[in-house]
Design a protein that fits this description.
alpha/beta; 2 domains; 3 helices; globular
Length: 167
């Protein structure tokens, strides 16, 4: 996955993109004056078939538009918590666990990460999607190679598949 931003991102948005790069099998590039077409060409050049464009509001990241082979796939509305320490994940061993029924089939398509085998659960190199206890909204959390929570914690406020109504 190639991660990029709006044209003039804030420092928090750039930090969020670097955090996603550390946590996922992804590359982050500064968009600058590149058009979306140029971003898609750069992704192909790098061998990536997915592009994530991070948008912001009032200087904070608030959304991601995910494109697959140049076509909009899904738009995510989110808020981000930066309070967790920065850790490194072993990107070759990363796996996904989804505890939110609505996203179980969708999550592997969004992130292109294999689902965890139900027989062998491990918190190492894990992307976990679970429901928040207080607000009952999905939370995306990352766990590093030592099983410690790391990187940005993402609260999914909503999502919309290309061609669908609001969710």
């Amino acid at each position: 996955m190639l991660i990029t931003t709006s044209r003039k991102p804030s420092q928090r948005t750039r930090t969020f993109c670097r955090g996603l790069e550390r946590a996922l099998d992804a590359r982050s590039v500064n968009r600058g004056k590149m058009s979306l077409r140029d971003v898609f060409l750069k992704a192909k050049e790098m061998g990536k078939d997915r592009v994530a464009v991070v948008s912001e509001r009032d200087g904070n990241p608030n959304g991601i538009e995910l494109y697959h082979d140049g076509e909009l796939f899904i738009s995510l509305q989110l808020t981000v918590d930066f309070s967790l320490p920065k850790g490194r994940m072993n990107k070759d061993k990363i796996h996904l666990r989804c505890e939110v029924d609505e996203l179980t089939n969708l999550a592997p398509k969004i992130f292109a990460i294999p689902m965890e085998d139900s027989g062998e659960q491990s918190d190492q190199n894990l992307v976990l999607i679970r429901s928040s206890v207080k607000k009952s909204i999905p939370i995306l959390e990352f766990f590093d190679k030592n099983g410690q929570a790391t990187g940005p914690r993402i609260y999914l406020q909503g999502w919309k598949l290309a061609g669908d109504e609001d969710t």
